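Limitations

Structures in this collection are predictions, not experimental determinations, and the ligand pose is part of the prediction. Treat each record accordingly. The example that follows, with 2'-deoxyguanosine-5'-monophosphate as the small molecule, is included so readers can see exactly what is and is not provided: the inputs are given verbatim, and the output is the predicted complex.
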Amino acid sequence: MSEKTIFQKIIDREIPAPLVYEDEWVAAFNDVNPQAPIHVLIVPKKLIPRVGEAVAEDQATLGALLLAAGKIADKLGIKDRSKGFRLVINHGKDAGESVPHLHVHLLAGRSLEWPPG
Ligand code: DGP
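Predicted complex:
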C-alpha cells in the first residue's frame, strides 16, 4: 500500500492540525504557508490525487468540496460580496501542485489580483 499523503495523516488525526470545518466528505484546515490572511485547504477524505484524475463516481465528493467552501466562507464572515474569497485548485507541475491529494485553496482577507501569477 502506498504511503499516506500528509493531508491524509491530518484527516486521520495522525498529525495535529486544528480543523476549520469537517463533514462526512471533507476536512478543512489552515495552510501551513498562508498566501493571504485567510488561507484554508479543503481536502476530500477520499484520496483523489488531483482534479484531472477524478472519475464519475467522485461527483459527490467534488460537489462537497465546493459546498464546504461556501459554508467555511460563511463561518469566517467572508461570504458577503462586499468581501469575498477565491478558490484555487492546482493540477500538476506548471500549476505548482506540491501535495498529490486533491485540495481546494480558499484565499481571502485581502484584495486578490487577476490574472493570478
Ligand atoms: P499545492 O501547491 O496546491 O499542492 O498546495 C499544497 C499546500 O499545502 C501548500 O500551500 C502548503 C500546504 N501544506 C503542505 N504541507 C502541509 C502541512 O503539513 N500542513 C498544512 N496545514 N499545510 C501544508
